[in-house]
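Need a sequence for this fold. Nothing fancy.
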């Protein structure tokens, strides 16, 4: 665990930050020699980082593995060994020069395929999203219409119960009509009395 922490610190400080600062100075001073030197280093360091991703998984159990990583980074940076320049000139540059055309063709094909795949999946994603939005809107509209319909039927029933028209039958008898009924016997009684008196005479 301690070896891993020390190796990570060494790679971070001496393998990344230190070369980054001197690369900045080379760009600022426009020194072609220093610029080429640090460009070769960054190419080797990129390959080292790529290989490190896999070796950390499969070779971390190897004795002195992290110590060897520290020694390799120091060898790359040392102005005496010039490890990055040596690896680049002996191995990387000849390999890339012989395979450059094939690598460029593969990169162009991968770029075109990735663009086509991105457009294809983008269209499918938009179609799926549009379909889901339409279905959600239709379901929501149907539920809303059913809800409004139930509310309207309840409201109509309530309105009919509260504001029902009065029955059209005859009005209840009032005091005037009652007195009229009581007056009719009195008139018939006076008429019968006058008829009986005329008969006796």
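Here you go.
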């Amino acid at each position: 665990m301690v070896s891993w922490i020390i190796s990570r610190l060494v790679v971070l400080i001496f393998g990344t930050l230190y070369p980054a600062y001197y690369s900045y100075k080379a760009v600022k001073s426009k020194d072609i020699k220093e610029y080429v030197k640090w460009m070769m280093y960054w190419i080797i360091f990129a390959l080292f980082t790529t290989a490190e991703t896999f070796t950390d998984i499969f070779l971390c159990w190897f004795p002195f593995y992290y110590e060897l990583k520290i020694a390799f980074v120091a060898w790359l940076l040392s102005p005496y060994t010039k490890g990055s320049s040596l690896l680049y000139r002996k191995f990387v540059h000849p390999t890339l020069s012989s395979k450059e055309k094939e690598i460029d063709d593969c990169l162009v094909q991968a770029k075109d395929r990735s663009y086509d795949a991105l457009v294809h999946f983008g269209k499918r994603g938009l179609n799926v999203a549009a379909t889901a939005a339409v279905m959600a809107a239709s379901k929501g509209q149907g539920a809303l219409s059913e809800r409004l319909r139930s509310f309207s039927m309840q409201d109509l029933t309530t309105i009919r119960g509260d504001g029902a028209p009065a029955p059209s039958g005859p009005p209840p008898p009032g005091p005037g009509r009652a007195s009229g009924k009581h007056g009719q016997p009195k008139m018939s009684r006076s008429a019968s009395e006058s008829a009986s008196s005329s008969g006796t005479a």
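For context: The chain has six helices and no strands.
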